[in-house]
Write a structure and sequence with these properties.
The protein is mainly α. It folds into 2 domains: 57 residues; 125 residues, no CATH class. 66% of the residues lie in helices and 0% in strands. It is globular and about 50 Å long.
């Protein structure tokens, strides 16, 4: 009997400390059948790509619906999870983005480490300057930078940079800084001015082969 109460107590404790998916966790709850059925094809495709899935046999809407129902419990890619806004320095918040992206791309540490250092130093330098110029707190810049379309545009830039590193075996910080520093400068300038136009232009660019 004593063992039974101990087991019940352990289960209750686990339920108390383990956040339910869609409540305290970063993951939204799985969509219901009714919600999936109401999704447009664009939304179904986004659900699939946001989880790193591929449906080679999806041609009609019904195909996408069946695939999403089958994979409704699939987890979001790290870069697609809801972003927690904090008052941490903007450089630290974007270092976390790079860490998530590195996990998502299975990026070797010899590539991710110099990329992370360049991103942190460039964000710190340019955010400090723009904050003074525009009389904005850095946490305000951080908040805006982590909202779309700003976030999506910079994430695309970071992915392109990571792929360029791997393709050309770039492991030193200097060439990464030469490629990325001005991009971050222009990005934060747009963030400070709340100018979304350059972001949509970036997102519309075709990927290099």
């Amino acid at each position: 009997m004593a063992n039974r109460f101990l087991l019940i107590g352990a289960i209750c404790a686990l339920l108390l400390v383990s956040p339910a998916r869609g409540e305290e966790s970063d993951e939204p709850p799985p969509p219901t059948d009714a919600k999936i059925k109401k999704m447009k094809i664009k939304e179904l495709k986004a659900f699939i790509s946001d989880r790193g899935l591929v449906c080679d046999d999806c041609f009609e809407k019904g195909d996408y619906i069946r695939f999403v129902k089958k994979n409704r419990d699939a987890l979001l890619l790290p870069s697609k999870r809801p972003r927690k806004i904090s008052k941490e320095p903007i450089a630290d918040q974007w270092k976390k983005v790079v860490a998530d992206l590195s996990t998502e791309l299975s990026l070797d540490e010899k590539f991710s480490k110099p990329l992370s250092k360049v991103v942190a130093s460039s964000f710190e330098q340019h955010a400090r300057r723009i904050s003074k110029q525009l009389h904005k707190e850095q946490h305000q810049l951080a908040r805006t930078s982590l909202e779309d379309p700003f976030y999506a545009a910079m994430l695309k830039t970071l992915k392109q940079t990571a792929n360029w590193q791997v393709k050309n075996s770039i492991v030193k910080q200097d060439p990464i800084r030469n490629k990325l520093d001005n991009e971050i400068k222009m990005f934060l300038t747009a963030v400070g001015a709340d100018n979304v136009n350059p972001m949509y232009e970036k997102l519309a660019e075709k990927e290099e082969l």
